[in-house]
Design brief:
Radius of gyration: 20 Å
Shape: globular
Number of helices: 13
Oligomer: single chain
Number of domains: 1
Order of helices and strands: HHHHHHHHHHHHH
Strand content: under 5%
Helix content: over 70%
Structural class: mainly alpha
Largest sheet: none
Length: 272
């Protein structure tokens, strides 16, 4: 069976499964934690600040800075958005996730949270989905960039829409991975600054370090490509070409599940 056909089948199954789980989600403890976190983000203006900072930085890079501006380039493209967004996410997402558990531990409310009729998995999933949702909210306005570049193209609409769609999917997977890493880092400490620094370091480690390692002379032939494939950037770049490979999807989902499972284990230490 061709890979594309297999991927379509998997996507249909995943979509059907997600629809089946929607009613259960709204009745579960995950929904309560999710709503609590979203309300906290926007009640404390963290949500507005995160969305505003991301859009201001991306707006300056996309339209003002001469070395990156779309207006100064010779072709219509959103390459600047998709090449710079991972670097911004590396700092922005840890700023979102740093309060997830660190603040609960610092204020002593973690014990109250864990006495509710919810499991550790539900607590982690609710906080994770809230952090991811905030990042998605920040990404949504960038669709205006696509519309603007679409109109500016000569001839109009001269864009690689398939590649752009793939890049957006890659950004969502990247945001999901960084959010999982950030939530895990926050579960390790009661200090938000420490959680931010640790999450940023881990995001950098998983995203870029394998590229640096592969450049070492001890790796040659196909081994350097194998080393690169352990890093997020390798799979993000692959999806950004507009071709969704099952190997890339499985990689991102594995990273997310791994760090969420590690977060659950980290929370479980309080019972030891």
């Amino acid at each position: 069976m061709p890979t594309t056909a297999l991927l379509k089948i998997l996507l249909v199954v995943a979509a059907f499964s997600a629809l089946m789980l929607v009613p259960r989600f709204f009745r579960s403890g995950i929904s309560a934690i999710y709503k609590k976190e979203i309300n906290a983000f926007f009640a404390s203006f963290i949500g507005y600040v995160v969305i505003g900072v991301f859009l201001v930085i991306m707006g300056l890079v996309m339209w003002v800075f001469p070395d990156y501006s779309v207006l100064d380039s010779n072709y219509a493209s959103l390459e600047t958005l998709f090449s710079m967004a991972p670097m911004i996410f590396m700092f922005l997402i840890p700023a979102v996730t740093m309060r997830s558990f660190a603040e609960e531990k610092q204020s002593g409310t973690i014990e109250l949270l864990t006495t509710r009729p919810v499991t550790d998995w539900q607590i982690v999933a609710g906080k994770y989905l809230a952090c991811l949702a905030l990042v998605v909210f920040a990404l949504l306005p960038t669709v205006l960039y696509y519309i603007t570049v679409y109109v500016l193209g000569q001839p109009q609409g001269n864009l690689d829409s398939g590649g752009i769609l793939g890049s957006y999917i890659g950004l969502l997977f990247l945001a999901g991975s960084f959010s999982a890493i950030g939530v895990f880092a926050s579960s390790l400490t009661n200090n938000q600054i420490v959680a931010f620094v640790l999450a940023t370091f881990l995001c950098f480690l998983v995203y870029l370090s394998f590229d640096f390692l592969s450049a070492l002379p001890i790796f040659y032939g196909k081994t350097d490509d194998i080393v690169q494939s352990f890093g997020i950037q390798y799979h993000y770049s692959s999806i950004s070409r507009g071709v969704i490979d099952t190997r890339d999807v499985v990689y991102f989902l594995s990273i997310i599940v791994l760090f969420l499972a590690a977060t659950v284990l980290s929370l479980g230490r309080r019972r030891w």
